[in-house]
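ugh ok fine here u go
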Amino acid sequence: MNNIKKGISGTIKVKKVNHGSHSHIHGGKYVGEKVDGKMHGEGTYLYNDGSKYVGQWKNDMMHGQGTHTWVTGEKYIGEWAEDLKNGFGIYTWSDGETYVGQWEDDIKSGQGIYTWSNGETYTGSWKDDQRHGEGTFVWDDGGKYIGQWVNDEREGRGILIEPDGEIFMGEFKGGRLVK
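structure:
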């Protein structure tokens, strides 16, 4: 209760939350709100390697909404929980590839859209960082696969539409139409 004091009129006022620098396990400098000596609330962390996180903190960990920009050119904008990407977010790689969707403990999980730098896209379910469940893949030549995926491969019922319009329907195994 150190941050609360009773005003003259009987109202309760919150004193300014402690701001200042703080060291993080990854090295660097934090400027922002702190509670009980810990990064907590809104703040910016500048890492020793030039990377930066701007957003919400809880008990010295990225938690809530925030943007992490790595010195490599990669960037994540979205939800965090205990220093890990959790919830909805957008990750952009330096080569232009992007993932827009759900994350669980730093892993693509749930619904999402991945776009490769050549324009190919996958829209659908993810599990353990792999395409898994129902999804659609569109190649850069216009070909398309709509169907089931298991461990990042076309597996199960699906439809393959060739760039010339020819359509193949059936069972896929190991990424190939088997019947």
